[in-house]
Amino acid sequence: MKKSEFPDAFQKVRETDGVLDIDDQFEKVTMILRHKDVRKCAHYYQSFKSGVQPGRIVVPSEEKIREIRQIPLELDPPLHTQYRSEMEAWFRRPLQEDYELKLTQITSDLVDEILDKAVLEVVEEFALKLQSQALTLLLNVPIEEAEIWISWGTHVFRSEDNPLDAEKAEILYHYIDEQIEKVLHHPGDDLYSVLLRSQFEGRKFTKEEVKGTMILTFAGGRDTIINAVTNIIVYFGDHPESLEKIREDPDIIGKAVEEFIRYFSPLTHLGRVVDVETNVCEYDLHNDDKVSLCWASANRDSNVFKNPNEVILDRKMNPHVGFGFSHHKCLGATHARQLLKILIKVLVEKVHSIQLLESEENIETWGKIKRKVGFHQVNAKFNSIKN
Amino acid sequence: MAKITFITRDGESKTVEGHSGSVMELAVQNHIQGIDGDCGGVCSCATCHVHLSPEDMEKLGQPSEIEADMLELEDNVSSYSRLSCQLDVSDELDGMTLKVAN
Ligand code: HEM
Ligand code: FES
């Protein structure tokens, strides 16, 4: 199997049952696997709620280790809408020309750094750096701040083998508390300051609310971006002809990004809590049951996607749910899309080929299913176009 | 060439001229409020939702199955809804008025 191949782990059970029960810390979670069902559950927030105890809708659950609510993720309309509308304009800044130029510079400098280096470990030495430096633009803080985030390494925020280990997340929480205190004394034009000035029902956001938003911004935009960047590089390593194809026809970059998000689905799933007796795929669900909307499975549903297990760079119809769907669709998607588009643009400009060496896959376990989501490490050599 | 008029949610009307590409792209180039085209036109975001007049709907035809499934779960959907990334700018659209849905 090629390194860039990401098998559809859910195919069989999606087609036969449409749902899969898994255990999460002694609680049953029913994963919803078909495209149509996933979209419906995401849309009908009245029956499938996000605004429950903080930490409950993520899988594995963080209920026992987190009291603070992630905003706007862990809320339902109409509250959700009120918070989210305060943030939307800020999260669209990546479309501004100035932002795009700065992001291009960051990406270009990082690629120059790695070109023709003997061997490089892509996850730590490239993807993490790009993700962190790019995030300074989204937060509008000095680029030097990225050094701190890079120093946390890739396994910050959540312990790999123990979901009840709260210590990891503390690093992030302390850091955010510190930043909020700093900004309270010296407000500026960064995201913390903007949130501290934001309004909810006629009053300003509380520190708690700002913290909950910032935690989500850091956590939601970290592994997802790192996996997307790494997987795209591995794909180009296996497919030099695709680099060539895009070089010849750069207009397809936008479609290629959507296709990579579909194929790699960097966020596998996210939970909801059932509020009424209902059923999905003839499977009965009861009040307070936990389900998860499996974006990764929906994105390979052959009822919707032709040749779902192939990467078709210029796929025309691509109703993927890689960034979620409906009310909670990814607020960071504008930034993520811009980052990935620029990455591909810079790669095809500068890189002739990428030689892949040893790597270690990152495999998630969901009940009886094992899903490849990315890599713990990938060693590679980037050959520049000039040589 | 086609002249297309967009009416946004706050009642503003803007007529723009296009030659090629999709109606969504034309709207984004002209900063039509309410048309964002987040996914670039692959039918994944529905941020390009417009309402046609009944006559224009008949002229341009019903959405494909994938487009219709997307619209089904959208706010402000009507039987004259289309995703404008699925409409190509052509002479056929000359003179049409589209109401931005969101
Ligand atoms: C390739 C990268 C990314 C992927 C695949 C991704 C995926 C997702 C998905 C599937 C959801 C929906 C969750 C749900 O329905 O419960 C979501 C929500 C969200 N994402 Fe992302 N994300 C990415 C990058 C980012 C980035 C860079 C940020 C910010 C720095 C971010 C911030 C958020 C936020 C704030 C929400 C919650 C929106 C809401 O509840 O209204 N994401 N993301
Ligand atoms: S632009 Fe995304 S669906 Fe039309």
Relevant terms:
heterodimer; A: 387 residues; alpha+beta; Cytochrome p450; five-stranded mixed sheet; three-stranded antiparallel sheet; 14 helices; 18% strand; B: 102 residues; Ubiquitin-like (UB roll); 3 helices; binds protoporphyrin IX containing FE; binds FE2/S2 (inorganic) cluster
Walk me through the structure.
The complex is a heterodimer of chains A (387) and B (102). By secondary structure, chain A is of the alpha+beta class. Chain A has one domain: Cytochrome P450 (Cytochrome p450, Orthogonal Bundle). Chain A has 14 helices and twelve strands. In chain A, the strands form four sheets. A five-stranded mixed sheet of chain A has the order 1-2-10-7-3. In chain A, strands 4-12-11 form a three-stranded antiparallel sheet. In chain A, strand 8 (278-280) and strand 9 (283-285) form a beta hairpin. In chain A, helix 5 (122-139) packs antiparallel against helix 6 (145-151) and helix 12 (253-264) packs across helix 14 (333-350). Chain B is an alpha+beta fold. Chain B has a single domain (2-100), classed as Ubiquitin-like (UB roll). Chain B contains three helices and five strands; from the N terminus they run ββαβααββ. Chain B has helices spanning 23-29, 54-60, 65-72; strands at 2-7, 13-18, 49-51, 81-83, 97-100. Chain B has a five-stranded mixed sheet with strand order 2-1-5-3-4, sandwiched between helices. The longest helix of chain B has 8 residues, at 65-72. The model of chain B has no long low-confidence stretch (mean pLDDT 96). The A-B interface holds A 36, 39-40, 43, 254-255, 257-258, 304, 315-321, 325-326, 329, 333-334, 337 and B 38-45, 64, 66, 69-70, 73. The complex binds protoporphyrin IX containing FE and FE2/S2 (inorganic) cluster. FE2/S2 (inorganic) cluster binds at residues 24, 37-39, 41, 43-48, 83, 85 of chain B.
